[in-house]
Input
Amino acid sequence: METSRVLHEPKLETLERIGEGAQRLDLAGMYDSYAAPLYRFLVTLLSDTADAEDALQEVFLGVMRRRNGDCIRDLHAYLFQAARRQALQVLRRRKKREKESAAALSWIDVEACREEHRETAMDIQRALIRLPVEQREVVVLKLGEDLTFREIARLLGIALGTAASRYRLGVRRLRELLQGGEDQ
Amino acid sequence: MTDYRRYQELSDDQLAELIRQLPRRQPGSHLRDRVLFQSAAQALRPSALLRPALAAAAIGILLVLDIAALRLQDRGLAVTGPRAAATVAARTEDAAADSAWSRQMRASGFSFTVARLRADEPASACTYRELLNDLLREGQGGRS
Output
């Protein structure tokens, strides 16, 4: 099973003066370290790969737009919080247009699942999309990225206890949905 | 349709473990190219208003030159080198229509556009990745 933990400590040498000049920022290195978990996070929140790609691009462009002296102390947290803001913007726009994503997508790669697990993966994705965003984002970071509650709290800028309780509520709700306990 | 029976005996922890074992989605390599290209294009111009125009200009000129090269190939003419290719491209109707892009690129100090076509390389080989590499190279050279 592939695990995809990213670097949890920011690369200080790239962060010292992040806005000083785009050429000094190791954008490719930053992308390679953080894009995959950010992408999975965004797909899970948005349930749409095209929207997730657009949002991911905006996150990285946002870093590049920062100016001199505008330091980022924790790049990992900065990127996830920026991704979260992007995702919420997209969701707000969708709500205005009363357009919901028809697909149920998440960080899980259903195509890559073994045949006997594919149905389970699809069931889980359908249930995931019905979780509130606050629970979904904690669940993806815990189960999709294997992060600790402390790391999740740091990345999302929430209290440790909040991260833990949102996760427990999210998993319980998932189980209830999968067991048919709640149809709506 | 969910078969609820298969999940009846699961505890929260077992469900979590089951989910954790499922394979994880990866972003496509095209997304990396796209993000790096857009970031490079953004970094090359100081004015935020001109950034999207720069990216569009880079892609537009590439297309113009590609079209010109394809026309040459259609007519059985050989492209003898980048300067010749650029000259011919500039004389085509398409290039004339898009000359504002060319001027904008020249004003930005870019020269890579004329080097896009080589005699030994088909126009279709001008890929997004190559364009990105050119942009990055030009950007680093221009800023250092």
